[in-house]
Amino acid sequence: MARIEKSLFTLFILLSLSWAVYIALDWPLRASIIILVLGSVGVVLSLLQLIFDVVPKGAGAAESEGIAFDAPALKPESRWGNLEIWGWILGIYAAIHLVGFVAAVPLFVFAYVKVYGGRWVTALSLAFLAWAFLYGIFEKILHVPWPEPLFYSLMS
Q1: Which pTM value belongs to this model?
Q2: Which entry of 3, 30, 128, 134 is 20 to 30 Å from 120 by CA?
């Protein structure tokens, strides 16, 4: 009975997301971009989940109890604790005002990955992906007007 309920719920989610994507196809691109992108991802994921719900597990596969989503207890690794987090938040805020949003986010991603032990390839790849996403979506598709960064106004 629980398997049928899970399948019906997943089917409901799949149909709801599919309907939202279908409706958004008639909207202008600027109004529908979020629905089309996130809805399409949701349709694919819910279709995959529906397949997992409907197809029975192999005869030799044991039923698992589920995944534990409990976060491990956080232990402060430095004496600064929350001040470190606030430093990162204020740093990204200052960087956005100094060099602009599209430049600050990749710089932040790169710095964050490198400070916490990431490799150069990982840091550069993630920074590039952050820049490409922001530039592609907000600059090229949505044409978001960004305020002029303080650094540019000081240079002129």
Answers
A1: 0.51
A2: 134
The answer to whether the CB of 102 falls within 8 A of the CB of 130 is no
On the question of pLDDT at 16 being above 90, the answer is yes
Domain extents in the chain: 2-54, 82-155
DSSP letter string, 106-137: HHHHHHHHHHTT--HHHHHHHHHHHHHHHIII
DSSP state of 28: -
| 27-82 residue pLDDT tens | 998 888 989 999 999 999 999 999 988 887 764 555 556 666 665 555 656 666 67
Residue owning tokens 């200052």: 94
* Residue ranges with strand state E in the chain: none
Instruction: Return the amino acid letter for 56.
Output: P
Q: How many beta carbons lie within 10 A of that of residue 82, not counting itself?
A: 8
Q: How far apart are CA 84 and CA 112, in angstroms?
A: 12
DSSP 3-state assignment of 54? helix
